[in-house]
Write a structure and sequence with these properties.
It is a single chain. This protein has 590 residues and is mostly helical. The chain folds into two domains: 257 residues, Rossmann fold; 221 residues, no CATH class. The protein has 25 helices and five strands. Helix 13 runs antiparallel to helix 14, helix 19 packs across helix 21 and helix 19 crosses helix 22. The longest helix has 28 residues.
Length: 590
């Protein structure tokens, strides 16, 4: 259904011809087999003799658990749509844009809009005429242009109960302006209606009615997408200008016809090529994440698996994009994990069981997996026992035995107790975050020359360029480097004022965890741990001495440095007391 704005209602159907050309260009079918409804109500907007009662609300607001579940399901669908169509962009608005649009409503060309907003009889007549054109059940896709977007949103909860809105796209919408809050529309749509699958709003940068912003400032549960046409002014606001854009066409095409098979075919055809470090890490991390999901129940399981669905789609998409830019084939093990994220009914494929790995290589990898947030940017607290049980299953698959998985968590617990001084809330799980990226930046990336272990500096530098430090893959690669990196680069990075104490604490805890795990597993201690920690301590003391001479006694910077020094001292003391420090040359061994 196409709902027009002010004017003559496009009696020639130019909107439809334009949309069909766009769909054809994108590889979608035309509208020949689609029932198209385009109600004409221009005359009704000017004033009418017939009187109709306002159509009643048919879709009732959900409450309690039903409302919560509806919102969660809706957010998942919206995340899938954003993943498919582009990043949410609400815009910042033009200075004075609201006032200009509000004033324009009072002008003669906008009389039809003013009538709909201010005359209850006209509004009731328009809504009634639209509903009369619709079937009582089935799936409906709505396109609302300009005032038509206001009518569309006003209509949502008044539709027949048997009619499911499979998707709604509003274009050139003025809904963000307070003048268009007809009959407290914002309040009645404070939550997505249960009959609405998804809603995207597309605004044109040059459209004066959109005023350089979307409508998520009013309805925060929708996704705003921006486009930029070559036209300006009234031409940029025209429905045909919007409908000729690929983003608008893709949204409507997906709502009408679903996924194009060629989109998935590109991903599914993987080759039997060896995994590189980033791909291997991603698959092991996703395997562990799925094992955690199997341990959960109820609401926690639903939220966790919903987040994991998004993270897996993003991870595979990132690998695919990186490989295409590097002209590298997609390994079959990666390709098989792709799925149509925009289809909420499609099952998320699980990674195969993890491959065997030597203990010496597993230590840094499993410490990182056990202590990092695999679902970033989502924050979901999972009980320690559930994560440990999943890690034990993972270490069984790796031919390491369940004791190895148990020891990872025991080592983490001991390291935490040593460094925290008894404060159980001292370090938050997954606390590296953006602080780790600051270390990379401070050292130029290449300074983090990794010791034998999880990754090398070149891998991390490349990964940050390809994946960024914020996502799962880039974040885990960065964390892995901070657990294994040697040399003065990491000491300088952690001592730098650009790195806060919390980040240093998180890095040192993971270093100490790895050292304790090696001891629990009867592995030879890694001398690099002691060397790095002593180098960090020296850098911190140098910095403290330099600043202490002239700074205030209560200087926050000095307090931060003291906090860092205390943490490193505790770690070194533990290593020394448990004979995990390296034997110095010439030391009496008797």
């Amino acid at each position: 259904m196409f709902l027009h704005g002010v004017g003559d209602g496009d009696p020639g159907g130019l909107w439809k011809k334009t949309l069909e050309r766009t769909l054809d260009r994108l590889g979608y079918p035309d509208l020949a087999d689609v029932d198209v409804v385009a109600p004409k109500y221009a005359h009704a907007l000017r004033g009418m003799d017939d009187e109709f009662p306002l159509p009643g609300v048919q879709i009732k607001q959900l409450v309690r658990e039903d409302a919560k579940q509806n919102r969660r399901d809706f957010e998942q669908r919206m995340g899938a749509i954003e993943f498919r169509l582009g990043r949410h962009d609400r815009g910042n608005g033009y200075p004075g844009g609201d006032a200009a649009l509000g004033a324009a409503v009072g002008l003669a060309p906008f009389k039809q809009a003013r009538n709909y907003l201010e005359n209850p009889l006209i509004r009731a007549g328009v809504l009634t005429r639209v509903i009369e054109k619709l079937p009582r059940s089935g799936r409906l896709v709505i396109i609302g242009h300009s005032l038509g977007s206001v009518i569309a949103s006003d209509l949502l909860r008044r539709l027949p109960v048997g009619l499911e809105v499979a998707g709604m796209a509003t274009i050139g919408s003025p809904l963000a302006n307070g003048k268009f809050d007809v009959d407290k529309l914002r309040e009645s749509l404070d939550e997505p209606p249960s009959n609405l699958a998804w809603w995207v709003n597309i605004w044109n940068v040059a459209d004066p009615v959109a005023a350089h912003r979307g409508v998520s400032s009013v309805f925060p549960w929708i996704v705003d997408l921006s486009i930029k046409s070559k036209k300006a002014g009234a031409a940029a606001h025209a429905a045909v200008d919007y409908l000729s854009d690929d983003v608008v066409g893709a949204a409507i095409g997906y709502a009408l016809f679903g996924s194009q098979s060629k989109e998935i075919a590109k991903v599914e055809k993987g080759l039997d090529v060896a995994l590189d470090e980033a791909e291997r890490l991603a698959l092991v991390a996703l395997r562990y994440a799925h094992l955690i999901g199997l341990e959960l129940e109820g609401d926690l399981r639903d939220r966790y698996n919903g987040a994991l669905r998004s993270v897996q789609a993003s991870a595979i998409h990132d690998i695919r994009s990186r490989n295409q830019s590097d002209d590298r084939p997609i390994p079959s093990e990666v390709a098989r994990l792709a799925f149509d994220y925009a289809d909420p009914r499609e099952t998320v494929p699980q990674p195969h069981a993890a491959s065997p790995i030597p203990k010496s290589e597993a230590i840094a990898l499993l410490v990182v997996l056990a202590t990092e947030n695999l679902l970033r940017p989502y924050d979901i607290s999972v009980p320690r026992g559930k994560r440990q049980a999943a890690l034990q299953q993972l270490t069984i698959e790796m031919d390491l035995g369940s004791k190895f998985g148990e020891d990872v968590f025991e080592a983490s617990k001991r390291a935490h107790e040593v460094l925290s001084g008894g404060d159980v809330n001292w370090i938050k799980w997954g606390a590296l975050g953006a602080g780790a990226a600051a270390i990379i930046v401070a050292t130029g990336g290449l300074a983090l020359a990794a010791a034998p272990g999880l990754v090398g500096a070149a891998i991390v530098t490349s990964a940050l360029a390809s994946f960024g430090p914020g996502g799962m893959i880039g974040g885990l690669l960065t964390a892995g480097t901070l657990v294994t990196a040697g040399g003065g680069g990491i000491a300088f990075g952690l001592a730098s004022s650009a790195t806060n104490a919390q980040t240093l604490e998180a890095v040192v805890e993971r270093r100490l965890t790895a050292a304790i795990l090696r001891d629990l597993q009867s592995q030879v201690p890694d001398p690099e741990v002691w060397k790095v920690l002593t180098a960090i301590e020296m850098e911190l003391r140098r910095e403290h001495e330099k600043l202490d001479e002239f700074s205030d006694l209560a200087s926050p910077t000095l307090k931060e440095l003291k906090r860092k020094i205390e943490v490193v001292e505790r770690a070194l003391k533990y290593l020394s007391e448990h004979d995990l420090d390296p034997i110095l040359e010439g030391e009496d061994l008797l």
